[in-house]
Amino acid sequence: MNEHVAGSGAEPDPADAHPESDAALRGVIDDYMSTFEPEPEDTAGLRERILRLVRDDLYRGPSTHLETGRGNPFSISTASVRSIVRIAVDSVDGIRARSVDVEPAGDPEGSAATVALTVAMRAGIPFAATAEVIRGSVAAAVLAELGIPAVRIDINAEDVYVD
What we know:
Blueprint: H1 14-17, H2 19-33, H3 40-43, H4 46-60, E1 63-67, E2 73-77, H5 78-90, E3 95-105, E4 112-122, H6 127-146, E5 150-161
Parallel strand pairs: 4-5
Antiparallel strand pairs: 1-2, 3-4
Helix pairs in contact: 2-4, 5-6
């Protein structure tokens, strides 16, 4: 068992934090493996490789899977992607980001992104003109930070505030 000690640089083992999930995953893998009889050399370490992938995902949190312009796939935490968009939205005068959803798009999948967001806007701001400023800011940030274009940016104003 991997003990995480502050300042030691050791990472905590995600399986230690979720023993029930780990046991359930082992059961699913065992059930799947019992449906066919592979050669032992084909399955060496398979269970541990699967569990490591799942544990790593639990540890890091959800990821958004994208692809560079040259076709190289990469993952970035979904929270980081949302943060990039939030900063771009919040940079527009009188607008504050509320919810942000970024989904892989394009052909091949992940070579572009679609963005859906809700915003709160200051009273008196003309929405149509400001929406274009928001789209420009988000498109520029996504391209600069992720290296892919935002092919669609949907904006929903869900609240109005007074300073």
